[in-house]
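hey
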């Protein structure tokens, strides 16, 4: 399979906080359109990406371009009001451009513990129970058929959060880059989450030398990602890049996605298997409940 029809569910872009991204959002969607991709999901860890997704869609209306909101301190942490506002932001049609809510990334307990940061984590669970504000956010996710991304939270919080999300009717639960060194969800746990109905978003950015230089840690190889996908099952995985948030050392997300597909083909994945993970399954997740 070539990149035609692919839908990358995790790309970063300029404008970006602190670091220089290797492409701006509008250039990125134009390049995606030139390569006949189905669309992109724009992610920003600091601010809702909904408005940028709306503008990008105006530039390339043939693409499906979505944004969302990440539960970090910049939006007030566990802030149901901010989530509700992001969902309504657009042209008057609820959840038209806001298609995901992501749990804490750089301010998750797991991320802060891993990097030994002097930050206060955004707690999600207390005494084994999901906090009330998160329950309110999960209701919004369920009511609007959004994707719940798990961000950088680790196994300790993942199980109670995913179980609670399922109880509240969240249909689309995606574990963000579970094979990354930070999140580091065991293959056995990934398989268990898959059996619960969650989807593993296997990202390729960690395979590049830039990742090791930036974070000082060795990420998984393409062989490792292939092994994880085979263990969990292609039906329980989608593939994405998580690219764009670097100064140009990596390829841009479009080139990175094409290379990812090529690397999986080298490791014996069929065109149909790749099509499911790169196009069919992610599109179904992100357009759930939409009239398209």
């Amino acid at each position: 399979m070539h990149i035609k029809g692919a839908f990358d569910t995790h790309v970063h872009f300029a404008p970006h906080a602190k670091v220089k991204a290797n492409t701006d959002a509008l250039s990125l969607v134009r390049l995606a359109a030139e390569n006949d991709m189905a669309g992109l999901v724009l992610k920003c860890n600091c601010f809702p990406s909904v408005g940028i997704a709306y503008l990008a869609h105006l530039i390339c209306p043939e693409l499906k371009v979505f944004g969302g909101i990440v539960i970090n301190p910049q939006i007030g942490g566990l802030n149901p009001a901010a989530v509700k506002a992001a969902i309504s932001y657009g042209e008057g049609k609820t959840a038209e451009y806001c298609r995901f809510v992501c749990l804490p990334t750089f301010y998750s307990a797991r991320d802060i513990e891993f990097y030994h940061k002097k930050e206060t984590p955004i707690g999600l669970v207390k005494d084994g129970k999901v906090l009330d504000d998160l329950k309110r956010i999960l209701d919004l996710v369920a009511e609007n058929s959004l994707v719940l991304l798990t961000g950088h939270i680790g196994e300790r919080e993942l199980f109670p959060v995913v179980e609670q999300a399922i109880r509240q009717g969240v249909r689309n639960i995606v574990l963000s880059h579970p094979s990354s060194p930070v999140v580091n969800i065991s293959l056995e746990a990934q398989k268990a989450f898959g059996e619960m109905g969650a989807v593993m978003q296997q990202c390729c950015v960690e395979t590049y030398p830039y990742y090791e230089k930036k974070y000082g840690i060795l990420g998984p190889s393409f062989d490792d990602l292939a092994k994880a996908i085979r263990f969990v099952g292609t039906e329980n995985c989608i593939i994405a890049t998580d690219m764009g948030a670097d100064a140009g050392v990596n390829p841009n997300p479009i080139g990175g996605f094409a290379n990812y597909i090529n690397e999986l083909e080298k490791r014996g994945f069929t065109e149909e298997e790749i099509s499911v993970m790169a196009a069919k399954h992610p599109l179904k997740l992100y357009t759930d409940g939409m009239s398209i």
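The longest strand covers residues 64-70. The chain has a mean pLDDT of 94.
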